[in-house]
Amino acid sequence: MTTRNQEGAPAGACHDTPAAQGFAMPAEFAPHDACWMLWPQRPDNWRYGAKPAQQAFIEVATAIAESETVFVGVNDDQYENARVQLPDHIRVVELSSNDAWMRDVGPTFLTHPDGRLAMVDWEFNAWGGLDGGLYFPWDKDRRIRTKIAEMLGVARFTVPVMLEGGAIHVDGEGTLITTEECLLNANRNPDLTKAQMERVLRESLGVETIIWIPRGCYRDETDGHVDNLACFVAPGEVVLTWCDAPDDPQYAISREALDVLESAIDARGRSLKVHKLPQPGPLYIAEDEASGIDRLSHSHPRQPGDRMAGSYVNFYIGNEVVVMPLLDPQRDDQAREMLQGLFPTRRVVGVPAREILLGGGNIHCITQQQPRCR
């Protein structure tokens, strides 16, 4: 693996990798200094000029801002609109993007025992490039990590591997979960073997044990991001989206994942405790929801009747709150009660999130935590 430091000087030797320097990716449930988001505005992805989606993003940002600083990056032509709509205590910064998926285009933050903050700058090709990618171009998205590193004045390790933040989850104690469907997809890194990808993850994120789940959620257009299927809620504990209907394609996917997780041993030698979180729906795009979207040849189509990859696992763990998507009135309360039991020291806040799901993701996908450092 080749890495470069913030100044851009080549650093090909193994001792220059983030892990060799003592950096590691902390768990999302560890303390944060801030959360980063982006402002939605793509008319070919968000209906009606993204106005309904903007309201959902505002609710997510407001809920997270109860216990940590929230930065919202905005393109210049939407800056004034975003500044007027967002609460005053949310920091609006000019940070141009092609779309609003900060989890995937933003930094993967690292911390060091001595208190330093750093980040990994992966490659990005809009979830597949010209082979199944969701839009073109992605040039503004590709510059976001560099800009945030400049804003914060932190070290940036560039890793020439295609990887999105939603493709990985860590427990902060040496264990990472991901899916083969995404990280080993030919439209990401066709020349990397599984063993080579594991080496990249260990050297870049300071993890030791990598648990591979075969597939992500059914019809997940990111090619199976793990953050829509399963995530760590504590060391040794994972929540998994669950389906009890045998005729639903998600049924087999969830059981396959359960088999992997229950047979895995983490970096500390523990077996994992798996909590089953029922999926909403199934959920489908309605006729009126498919209208109001610009139809462009270079963007992912959204058609009436298309199934959406709805999941309650796609939540954000804040310092004092857990912000979860409200997606199905028949199951929202059950999901909220279960999450409250898993996070007894945090308040679970439900936010109506169907508008975010209509764009292809959810709350975890539009947020990126900046871990606390000294």
From TrEMBL:
Catalysed reaction equations from the record: agmatine + H2O = N-carbamoylputrescine + NH4(+)
Protein name: Putative agmatine deiminase
UniProt-listed Enzyme Commission number(s): 3.5.3.12
Domain of life: Bacteria
Family (UniProt): Belongs to the agmatine deiminase family.
InterPro entries in alphabetical order: Agmatine_deiminase, Peptidyl-Arg-deiminase_porph
Enzyme class name: hydrolase
GO molecular function, one term: agmatine deiminase activity
Annotated active site: 365 (amidino-cysteine intermediate)
GO biological process, alphabetically ordered: putrescine biosynthetic process
Keywords: Hydrolase
